[in-house]
Amino acid sequence: MKKKVISALLCAAMVITMAAGCGSGDKTETTAATSTTKETQAAKTEGSEAGSAADTEEAAETKAEGETTAANTDFAGEELSILVSAGWMDNRYDETIARFEETYGVTVDLQTIPADQYGDLLQSKLTTDSCADIFWIQSNPFAIASQIVDPEKYCIDFSDASWKSVMPENRLSACEYDGKLYGLQIWHNSPEYVMVYNKTLFGELGLEAPKTYDEMLKVCEKLAAEGITPWFEPGADGWQHPLAFFQIGGAYEADQPGLYDKLNNNEATFADNQLMIKVLEQYKELADKGYLGEDWIGTDSTNMVNEFADRNCAMAIANSSFIKQIQDETETTDEFGLFLEPLGDNTYFPTSPAGPTMFGYKGTTHPELVKEFFSFVTTTESLQEILDNSPSYTNLDVNDDKLQQHWLPEEEEFMKTLTDEQMKTPVLQNGTKYTNDYWMQFGQDMVAYCTGQMEANDVLKNMDNNRAEAAKVANDPAWK
C-alpha cells in the first residue's frame, strides 16, 4: 500500500496542470459526529441484535457475496486510489487494505490530506475531473447536496449493492440523495465529543462534574489553582475547538423551539442569536482565564493522551472511547467519566446521524475494483479488523451480529443517565443545512474572536454569509 500525507497547497498547484482523469488524488473535510438513540444504545450494550432478523440475514448474504466476487474478476496489476482527510481512516484500515491488496493482486494508493485543507482540495479534484477512485466527505443528511452538489455526475450509484443492509436505517439519510445510494458510512455509535474527565482527580479535589457554566467556572478555578490545565483544547488541530459551539445544538433549539426548521428554510440566522453569542462569550472567557491551556491556539492533540495520564489536564471534549485509548496507551490507574458540555447551560446529548463516508468516483477507470473494495470492507472479517485496529472506537454501528463489540462500562453508565428528551435533537452542524461545510472557517473565526480581531456576532454573520453562498450553489429555493 502506498501511503501519503500530502500538503494540499502543493496538490492544488498540481491539479491545475494535471490532465483530466482519475487516479491519484487527495482528501476532504472534518468533524465527526454520530447518531444514537437511547433504545439503540441499550440494545447494543446488552448484546441485542443490531437490526431485525431480516436485516441480519441480508447483511450475512452481503458478506458472503463480497467474499466470493473476487474469484470472478481479475484485478491483478490495477491501482486503487483513495482520497481522505486526516483522522477518517488512519491506521484502522491498514490491515484490511493490505489483505485487499494481497487478495486481488492490486495496489492501494492512500492519500491523506490535512483536515483544514481537504475540503478545498476535494472540490478542485471533482471540478477538474481528476478525483481519486474513492473519496470521502463528512456526511450528514444535507452534505451530499452541499458538498458534492451533483452526485449523479461524480458518484457511482450503489443502490443495488448488497452491502446496503449492513448500514442501519438511520445512517442511510447521510448516504443517499434523491432516492439513490451513493455512500458507505462505517462509524461508531458511542457518545461522540462529550466532556471526558479524570474522575479520580475530581474526587481527590472534592469536585463534581459541572452541570452549568457557572459550575464549570468554579471547577476550572479549582483545577487551575492546583496547576492543572482544566480543559485541554487542541486549537492547532483546526477542527477540535468548534465542537464546543456546535455540539450543544439541543440547547439552541430548546431556547428557540423551531430554530432548526427556520434555519433550514432561511427564516432565521445565526447572527443576533443571543444564546449563540453567549456561548461564544463564555468560551472566550475560559480562554482568557487560561482554562483552555496557556497556548491552546498553538497546541495540537498529538500528546493529549499523555497529558491526561500525567494529570497535566483534567477535561477535554472527546469521544467516549478516548478513555480506552488513555488506558491502553499509558500506565495510569485513574478512572475517567463523561458529562454533557455545560456551555450555555446545555443539558442535551450531541445526537447526530453523521460521520465520515466514502464514495466511489464515477469517473474512475476501475469501477469494478471500486465496487469490490466497498463489498470487501463490509464483510465481518474486515469490520472486525477496522474495529480492533481503532484505538478510538469501542464499537461499529452496523448490522452484523457476528461482530465482537467492545463497549466500555463508562459509556454504559453515562448513557443510562440520559432521557429521550435529551437525545432528540441533532447537533447543530448536522441538523441544519450548509453549516458543517464551513466548519473550518468557523473555527478560524473563533480564534480571531478569542484574540480580539473580530466580534462574536461577526463570527455568526460570517456563517450566515457562507451558508447563503452554499445555498445558491445548491439552487436552494429557500434562498432565492
TrEMBL record:
SUPFAM superfamilies: Periplasmic binding protein-like II. InterPro entries: Bact_solute-bd_prot1 (IPR050490), SBP (IPR006059). The keyword Signal applies. This is Multiple sugar-binding protein. Residues 30-54 have a biased composition (Low complexity). The keyword Transport applies. It comes from the Bacteria. PROSITE patterns: PROKAR_LIPOPROTEIN. Residues 1-19 form the signal peptide. Residues 24-71 are annotated as: Disordered. Belongs to the bacterial solute-binding protein 1 family. Keywords: Signal, Transport.
